[in-house]
Amino acid sequence: MIFFVAFLLFSFSFAQAGTLVEMKTSMGTIKLELEDEKAPITVNNFLNYVDEKFYDGTIFHRVIDKFMIQGGGFDQTAKRKETKAQIKNEADNGLLNNKGTIAMARTGVIDSATSQFFINLVDNNFLNHRGKTGNTYGYAVFGKVIEGMDVVEMIGKAKTIAKSQLFHDYPEPQVIIESVRRLEP
User: Per residue, what are the HEC states of 8-27?
Assistant: First the structure.
């Protein structure tokens, strides 16, 4: 009986977990659990970049305390990296832009996300799906921080400068994404 209960508990917890990813940064390590079932297009897109080691050596180029940290699109010379095609926005998946969630960055065009992502430092309700227009469609959450939220918050407190017209909240010194890798379940 005990064996059966232990087996059920193990099976249940294993079935609930999404893909795990480890992001090593110059300020510490962040572990993420992705929402494979609720955001399949977004997770697949992110994992394609992960598997190609696209994020290695990129930077967090936009850091706003009490809002979010954004990265995944620029190298250490602040040059934009070439990306894959834009993906469908899954912001209507029921996941909310709460503290510690990771979501896709995009332009004003609803389906314009490619490689850039952000991690929410607070509950950002105004980023949630609220309608079908560009202003209300929202930003697709596709996972959450399960370890290293202290690192995320430390990055959020980084000193920033207005580096150029493009970079108004640029961390100085840079915060580098050293590697992003899948973890074995």
Answer: HHHHHHHHHCCCEEEEEECC
Distance CA 64, CA 93 (A): 26
pTM for the predicted model, two decimal places: 0.91
Torsion of CA 104, 140, 156, 62, to 10 degrees: 40
What confidence tens digit (pLDDT) does each residue in 46-80 have? 999 999 999 999 999 999 999 999 999 999 999 99
Q: Mean pLDDT for the chain? A: 93
Q: H-helix or E-strand containing 159? A: none
Amino acid at site 54: F
Backbone angles phi, psi at 129, to 5 degrees: -65, 125
List pLDDT tens digits, range 128-183.
999 999 889 999 999 999 999 999 999 999 999 998 888 999 999 999 999 999 99
In 3D space, the residue among 70, 87, 101 whose CA is nearest the CA of residue 169 turns out to be 70
Q: How far apart are CA 70 and CA 116, in angstroms?
A: 7
**Look-up of token digits 């065009």:** 109
Evaluate the omega torsion of the peptide bond into residue 185 and state whether it is cis, within 30 degrees of 0: no
The alpha carbon of residue 183 and the mean position of all alpha carbons in its chain are separated, in whole angstroms, by 16
160-161 and 175-183 as β-strands: parallel, antiparallel, unpaired? unpaired
